[in-house]
Amino acid sequence: MACKSLAPHRFCNFPAISFICDASMFLRTRFPTTSTFRPTVHRSITFASGSVSVASSSFTWEDALHISLPESFQDDPSDLTGYFEKVKLCNRGSDMQSEFLPFVIDNQIIGYVHHGFAEHLKKYANVFTFPQDDSVQCGAYLTLNESLTTPEDRTRGVGDVVKCLGEEVIPGTRNELYPVTSSFGAPVFFSLERAAAPYFGIKVYGVQMNGYVERDGQKFLWIAKRSQMKQTFPGMLDELVAGGLPQGVPCGENLRKECEEEAGIPRSISNKAISVGAVSYSDIKDYSYKRDVLFCYDLKLPESFVPKNQDGEVEGFRLLPVENVANVIRRTQLFKPNCSLVIIDFLFRHGCIKPESLGYLELLQSLKSGTCF
């Protein structure tokens, strides 16, 4: 396919991550920090009568550990406000849904495409068409050219368009294919480049695992810090193991693969990971419509086990009491946003968030804000 010229269009990166601090609740605390990535630069962070913003790439483990300590701030662990903020962060833009066209194949809506992004696709009439049909939302919709009848033809045709659009329109391509289906386990219509998935609004599935240790009746969570070289959310905090679910790989097998690559967990241990449900969210920003479902796993690890990254995507690991991890979730935005949802789910299931807390059921239900099937 010959690539056609495109008007310049660039997308903003995810904004700087803020430490969210309810000023009226916190003591005034100052502590010096030295950036891991700019060692000659010194700064100080003040938690006082206003929120303090720090770029996500500039906080250190020392910052996160200080913030995690129960005694660092005079806040109430039973206050669920900070958790609700994390759910809201993953479910932005519901008022923008009218700006998206349904993406329809075989009379099934399999995604959503922003009108602005659709203008790019109109240049490729041999792949995409825009019929009118009153039976489909808003009348107009996007579909594939009727000449593309097989999954292989569709994958090739859409893939050629994605390559032609290039990094200016779809940044961060990885040459990793995700299946496009109407629902989990349904027949695959075609396969799509992972980075393009949110621009076509297809549902994407992943696996995420909380690795924990028990010592003297107390639970600890292993937390990772993402490499600065990651294309998405560099330098942010993460769960022990997480990964997208690529084409043709079952959830359990994908989890065991990610365990080996991300944390050096051998299969003799990762085989004991327990499937514990799923969380979902729907996030709209600019031309991106993320409809993600994350299958959650727990793995109780031996006290002697120390994770070691194998693929260069993790900067380091720390083992923290579960309550301290909860403090970081409540007080900051240092975690990759969707990881917060999976950890909040863990906190519910392990009794760290209790029914006595105001908003308990609402928060529990909000963890499945996306269509989870």
Automatic annotation (TrEMBL):
Annotated ranges, domain Nudix hydrolase: 204-345
GO MF terms, alphabetically ordered: 8-oxo-dGDP phosphatase activity
InterPro entries named in the record: DUF4743 (IPR031804), NUDIX_hydrolase-like_dom_sf (IPR015797), NUDIX_hydrolase_dom (IPR000086)
Pfam families the record matches: DUF4743, NUDIX
PANTHER family from the UniProt entry: THIAMIN PYROPHOSPHOKINASE, THIAMIN PYROPHOSPHOKINASE 1
Family note: Belongs to the Nudix hydrolase family.
Function noted in UniProt: Probably mediates the hydrolysis of some nucleoside diphosphate derivatives.
Name of the protein in its database record: Nudix hydrolase 20, chloroplastic-like
Organism: Momordica charantia (Bitter gourd)
